Amino acid sequence: MKSWRLPKGVLFYLFIDYLIASLSWFIFILFRRTILEARPLSYEIFDNDSFRYSMLVVPVIWIMVHIIFDSYRNVYRMSRLAEIARTFFATFFGVFLLFFTILLDDLVNYMGGYKGYYLAFASLWAIQFGCTVFSRMLFLSIASYRIQNGKFSFNTLIIGSHENISPIYHDIINRKRQLGYNILGYIRIPGKHDFPLENELNALGDLQQLHQLLYDLNIEEVILALHKSEHTKLNKLISTLDRHSNKILVRAIPDMRGILLGKVNMPSVRGAGLLEIKTHFIPIWLRIIKRMMDLSTSFLVLILCSPLYLFIAIRVKISSKGPVFYKQERIGKYGRPFTIYKFRSMYLDAEKGGPQLSSTGDSRITNWGIKMRKYRLDEIPQFWNVLKGDMSLVGPRPERRFFINQIAKKAPNVHKLHKVRPGITSWGQVQYGYASNVDEMVERLKLDLIYIENLTLKLDLKILIHTVLVILKGSGK
Known about the structure:
The chain is of the alpha/beta class. The chain folds into three domains: 10-148, no CATH class; 154-277, NAD(P)-binding Rossmann-like Domain (Rossmann fold); 284-473, no CATH class. 48% of the residues lie in helices and 10% in strands. The longest helix is centred in the N-terminal third of the chain and has 35 residues, at 114-148. The two termini are 39 Å apart.
């Protein structure tokens, strides 16, 4: 499997943003000293450590702000109008941040009281917004020119064999102004329909190979062209493509509008009439804040609860022979395996007959293990997993590959759980506790999928509060 790659154009976009942030800050300092503070223009304005320090730090802060506002995702596909709106809010947030962290204490010498503060805030925002929008509109205009002239394109894969893909394909390749599609070939879904372009495009494989093909061919766009008889494959297709939603744009022929109702965005007016399928995407700002909460909470728990860790470790050691900690491979974000840590709650060789789920009255669980599970104490070593980045405080519970394969037979969309980090607790865990069979896992899966599609900090806090109540009541199982 090939390694993860940055979307095209991102490094150049970052470099331009850094230069623009440096230029904007320089112009603001010049404006501030000569206009707001009415100082004479001289070399001394810039000949000081404070100015040199700010010229290094401020552009980095702006890069972080743009990352939080998701300015570097698919830069060649950005809408100019949408980018103006995003830049408006990003620069307002960035100026607010700079004003209260760097500028506020340095503005006490302004004439005119609060008027000076307002002028400084407004001028910094206007300069930053104006320079950033100008550079981005220039970049996006150049990008659009390169795409239309065939100098830049996205590796594209067609899936399905609907006959209407033929006129759409010929419309795409025969346009004087290109749309940016580099169609590498197709995957035909097994059935009675022949692919209408099999003499013009290469067959690249089948659905079983799709996940690997997306990596190997560095696919950036997928066009779905399914017959009605092939719609039974749609959920599995969307599930596989969803795992690459941060990188791959999914489109469909207009004939699929009926089955995709509620899942499509308005097609481009100047495009080929293809529908864009909406995939759930968690904004970067939310991921950053969620990760900061994970790190700070886990660090505090590991430090403050160290006496509790010691007490539990001693009780585990006394309860039965074997190690204090239990280690097991689980499947995490993007389907990557990791080692999960727990306090051991079962006797040694509890799974010598193969993978098994625990249940009420399970004879494999030690007496101390029963008490730990009741109050979820066996789970607290997973704060180390959170600190390492394997897990989050809140997220779908991680499972073993064996049981994921079992669940997939009843719920093929189980792989959607791997779009986010697994968690110590989850909505499904609060409702169902430890699943004792695959059917309970499937029911828990439904709640966890709803959580992923509606992920907010507010929802995370609600789940954490309910988890604390479960622990205090000792209602875990």
